[in-house]
Structures are given as C-alpha cells and as structure tokens.
Fold branched-chain-amino-acid transaminase.
Amino acid sequence: MTETLTIHTLPTTDSRLATQDFDHLEFGKVFSDHMFVVDYRDGEWQDAQILPYGDLSVSPANSALHYGQAIFEGMKAYHQADGGVALFRPLDNWARLNASAERMCMPTIPEELFMQGLRELIKLDAGWVPTFAGSSLYIRPFMFATDGFIGVRPSEAYRFVIFTCPVGLYYNKPLRVRFEQKYVRSAEGGAGYAKNAGNYGAAMYPTKLAQQEGYNQLIWTDASEHRYVEESGTMNAIFVVDGRVITPALSTSILDGITRRSVLELAHDMGLTVEERKVSSREIIEALKAGKLEEAFGVGTAATIAPIAVIGYEGQDYEVPATRPDGFSKRVSAALDAIRSGEGADVHNWMVAV
Ligand SMILES: *Cc1c(COP(=O)(O)O)cnc(C)c1O
C-alpha cells in the first residue's frame, strides 16, 4: 500500500436521504447512500473505492459461503454537540478486526486504509448521521473471501467493505435470559474471541430454543463444565454484587468487547472495585437469593447496556431487582452518552473526529 492512498469515489446520482424517515429508524434496515470497498489480490490491498450502496457480485465457489472465511466489526459514529461527527474508539475496532483476520487466516488491514476509508465514507454520508439524543450512525466493516475455488484452503483474494446505518435510540427492554447448559457458543481454543460470522450462525439454534421457552437470550456457559458464565447472547455480561463490578475474565472463548472495556474503565474511574475472573452461575444465583445481586446486564455496541430482569437456572426463574436510578449501569450509561455526544470530558481520548 502506498503512503498516500487514493480512494476513487463514485457518488450516487440517486440519493435516498431526502426520503428517509429518521423518526422511525429500525435497527439494521436503513442503509446510507455509499459503501467503501477494497480488494485484496496478489498479496496487497488495491482498488479502494467508495460506491453507491448496493449488491455485490461474488463467485458461487467463494470460501466465505462454504467454509466461513468471513469476519466483521460493529462500531458507531456520533453527532457532536459542536456540530461535527466523531467515532468511538475506532482503533480498537481496527485492532480487533485484525485479530479476527489472523484467527481466520485472512489478511490484516493497515490502519491508514481502515481509517481513511472510514473517514471518507462518513464525510460523504455525513447527512445520514442522525442528530437527536441517543441516535448514532452504526458502522459495519466486514471482510470475506472472494476466490472462485472450492478446495479447502485459505482464499487468496478477499474483499473488505464498510457500510453504515443510521440508528435511533435503542430501547432496552429488560431481558429474560437463562443459563445454557447443553449447547455452547465457543470453547477454549476455539474462535470465540474472533468476530467471525460462524459464531453467530451456530448460536442461532440454541437461542431459538430458549426463545420458544419465553426467554430473549441465553447466558452462555463454559464448554467443559457449563458452570462459568461466558457471555450474554452477543454481549459481554456484567454483574454488580454487593457494590462490586464482576465480569468473566477474557479468554479465547470470550469476545473482547469494546463496550465491556469502556464500562470497566469507567467503573475504575468511579472508584469501584472491578473483578475480572471466573464467575459461576451458582455464585450469581446465590447472590441473587441472598439479596446481594444489585444489577445484571449485557454490554455491546448496538444496545450499549441491556439490563437483565429475569435469569433462568436449572428450571427455575429468578428475578433481578429493577435497576435503581443511581445504579451503576445507569451512571455508566449516562457517562458514556456524555462522552460520545461530546458533552462530557473525554478524559481517555476515546473519540476520534471524522
Ligand atoms: C461484538 C460482540 C460483543 C460486544 O463487543 P463491542 O465491541 O462492545 O460491541 C460481545 N460479544 C460478542 C460475541 C460479540 O460478537
């Protein structure tokens, strides 16, 4: 890749912006006008382009479709109080994309290519960044194999794409979840720490079974004993027990969430005790029964914080007390909102202007 990257831009002649209803945005259904596309061939990234958002043509033999060489990221840009647009911790997403790429035998992306593609795309579609409280521009970078070859080996060609979706305030209806004791999302030594497509595909069936029993999501437990908490659906799980913030320690089976990382850093800032360690389902239920479980919630980019209202364990449902207005999850969520909108001090330098 050359030092100064030229991204060829083909602006749309048919913008859909004027016809969008920003008051009724459904998550993931509305796409901004453009997408960033770059191809990996002959050992290098080439032909970086910004094109009108639209269908892609692929070989039916590509190894993303057959063998799952496909990874993605999820991140957000926010309208700023001063009128600009800023990204939340984009270099963390870039680094994680490359960690996922390595695990799936895919090429890594240089920082400049990722950041320049992202910046130019968002500048061009700046009109799509919603401005009302709680809204944002959801950004979906992803990479997939493009070789037309059905043999099992890492593809030699790949495509990296970024598209964006304006999203409204995420309504966090408190969740009903249950500990999963039969299926697993990922195992130690597997690819659970990578954001690869197959992790999601394999989680859908066990999740569907739980939904048929009236739950919204599963709390995944470890693959060998089904004793320790892994994640809550596609979010990291955090508990507040007796004033302490407790979360499963990272491992090869847990995704290193950027929201998790941010929430823990803010907990430290607030002077709270943070424990990253093994957390057993029994410990959580015992704390709940003893009246010591103050909060349970999932954390991730889409929802930020998703409170848990009910936890199913060994056939029994347990109610988590409603979050108090001064509870940790409320305070941390307000602190994150302030940083992301540019209204609060960004002491950790998490925001990057577009
Ligand atoms: C993306 C993801 C998360 C949350 O990560 P964030 O960076 O906070 O969005 C948590 N768990 C899984 C399995 C994920 O794929």
